[in-house]
């Protein structure tokens, strides 16, 4: 009898341990699956403290802003941007859109890579910011929400600081093990020193050689240069972007600057959104938006038209 009672006790304990283990495992998975609540407000500006400002070149700096807790996420969907509010040199309020280079997987902070122009109004605000200052941010802004696998490949054409939305989307694609989308990026600048995020881009190209290709184009290249020279041409697009197809999308044709650049034929602050068409004919309600002076955008659209990319694969105002 004592032997049977001992067996029952052992069985009861084993079942209890198993139940606790299953409950603990379920709780762990639940916590892991929960997404942190975003810190942004689409209607009201919120303040975020600058904790690090690192100069990358004479006119480019990386700004790191802390979120309320170490486990907080900014809450910015892939492909969207934030509105930043500041003051220009005359003390007047200025609001400009920027795309963080961080993702929501980067908990506790977000980062902005800012190119500061001599006469740029928002550039003045960022140039004057010191560690401990606060930045007013509102968002998310934009209509694009990236869906993994919506196309087989993205073609991207960027110039100057227009690289930031491409970098954000490319990171999201490559860091998702279930996303097999390929990315082909043409990135144009005036000089070598103007290339933003080059170390990070080169690292991604090395880490994901079968999924990410990048081709640099410089208007004023150094003596030793293996990339493209001059302006982005039809031949460059043909050689370094996926060909037109129902399930391949050239998504970005954008430049973001605050000042006119005669070298690149661009100007004004521009921002990018996206459009995609799948091989099944399902079209995303998002389109490429090219804002501001149109010289390069017009040239790229003409190139893409010539190469057979339909209007459904590209869009411009």
From TrEMBL:
Its EC number is 1.6.2.2. It is found in: Mitochondrion outer membrane. FAD binds at residues 97-98, 113, 115, 122-123, 164. The chain crosses the membrane at residues 12-31. It is an enzyme of class 1 (oxidoreductase). InterPro entries: CBR-like, Cbr1-like_FAD-bd_dom, FAD-bd_FR_type, FNR_nucleotide-bd, OxRdtase_FAD/NAD-bd, Riboflavin_synthase-like_b-brl. PROSITE patterns: FAD_FR (PS51384). Keywords: FAD, Flavoprotein, Membrane, Mitochondrion, Mitochondrion outer membrane, NAD, Oxidoreductase, Transmembrane, Transmembrane helix. It holds the Pfam family FAD_binding_6. Belongs to the flavoprotein pyridine nucleotide cytochrome reductase family. This is cytochrome-b5 reductase. It comes from Urochloa decumbens. The lineage of its organism: Eukaryota, Viridiplantae, Streptophyta, Embryophyta, Tracheophyta.
């Amino acid at each position: 009898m004592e032997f049977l009672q001992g067996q029952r006790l052992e069985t009861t304990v084993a079942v209890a341990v198993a139940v606790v283990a299953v409950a603990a495992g379920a709780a762990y998975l639940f916590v892991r699956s929960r997404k942190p609540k975003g810190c942004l407000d689409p209607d009201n500006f919120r303040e975020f403290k600058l904790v690090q400002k690192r100069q990358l070149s004479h006119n480019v700096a990386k700004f790191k802003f802390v979120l309320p807790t170490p486990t907080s996420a900014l809450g910015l969907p892939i492909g969207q941007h934030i509105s930043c509010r500041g003051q220009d040199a005359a003390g007047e309020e200025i609001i400009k859109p920027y795309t963080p280079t961080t993702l929501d997987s980067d908990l506790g902070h977000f980062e902005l890579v800012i190119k500061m122009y001599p006469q740029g109004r928002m550039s003045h605000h960022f140039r004057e910011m010191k560690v401990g200052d606060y930045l007013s941010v509102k968002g998310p802004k934009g209509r694009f929400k990236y869906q993994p696998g919506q196309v087989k490949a993205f073609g991207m054409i960027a110039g100057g600081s227009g690289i930031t939305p491409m970098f954000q989307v490319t990171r999201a694609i490559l860091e998702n093990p279930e996303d097999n989308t390929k990315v082909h990026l043409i990135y144009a600048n005036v000089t070598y020193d103007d290339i933003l995020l080059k170390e990070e881009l080169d690292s991604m190209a090395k880490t994901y050689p079968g999924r990410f290709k990048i081709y640099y184009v410089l208007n004023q290249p150094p003596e030793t240069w293996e990339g493209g020279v001059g302006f982005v041409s039809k031949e460059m697009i043909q050689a370094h972007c996926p060909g037109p197809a129902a399930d391949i999308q050239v998504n970005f044709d954008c430049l973001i600057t605050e000042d006119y650049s005669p070298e690149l034929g661009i100007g004004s602050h521009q921002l990018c959104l996206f459009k995609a068409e799948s091989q099944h004919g399902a079209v995303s309600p998002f389109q490429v938006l090219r804002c501001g002076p149109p010289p390069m955008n017009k040239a790229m659209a003409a190139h893409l038209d010539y190469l057979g990319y339909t209007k459904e694969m590209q869009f411009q105002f």
